[in-house]
Amino acid sequence: MLNLMRLEMKKYHLGSYVKGAIIANFIILGFLFLVVGISKVEGDQDLENYQVALSVIESMIRVVFSIFASTLIAKLIIGEYKFKTITLAFMYPISRKKLIVAKLAIVMLFTFSTIIISNAFITTTFCIISDRFDLIPNVLSSSLILQHIPSVLMNAIAASGIALIPLYFGMRKYSIPATIISSIIIVSLTSSNTGNFTLNDIIFIPITLAIVGLGIAYLAIRNIEKVDV
Question: What confidence score (pLDDT) does residue 131 get?
């Protein structure tokens, strides 16, 4: 399975997605400092403390890389069906199910790892610079960081499952736009902030959506032999 995943990653030049993830990290950082800078000028502190700042960082990263995941699904699976290149892949002496599992595993692993690594990098960089230039009023405590780690880990796991939901919409008519748009709608609904509250804060919602995503993946794998290519 690992060899198959490695071959798929090499086949689709997924190193470009890693470069894209790095660029996205710096864009998120730039946006955060822009928000802080504007707040300082206007005298209105949007990121009033580190707890809010960490929550905003985690939410932004989850949104960005959930959409990244949908583009991966579009490239690895939907595009293959749309342009009939999957037919050639199915001619190799490899189980269809095993091939699809490898593709979905790449999507989940990419989503999970980029969310974890990006949270570590962006949070560390932002907090160091913020502390150096006194951008956030209160002091960052080690207890707050320790409390935040389980939340990041849980949301990364949930996002890895939720990222598979667009597979359902994309496979209906082998539509790349439907795959990406459905992902944008899902993250918009779950991450829209209303009074410092999002649907993602209700623990059973991301867990339920993650289970739905895994269920969609399971059905796609189980019915792969029946799919007309």
Answer: 85
